[in-house]
Amino acid sequence: MAPPPVSDMASIFVQIGGHTEVNAQGCHITNYVPAANGYVQVRWRGVKYYCHLLAAVMQMQRHPMPGEEASHLCGDKRCVRPSHMTLESGALNKTRSYCAYFREDPNLVCLHDPACL
Question: Within a domain: residue 115?
Answer without folding.
Answer: no
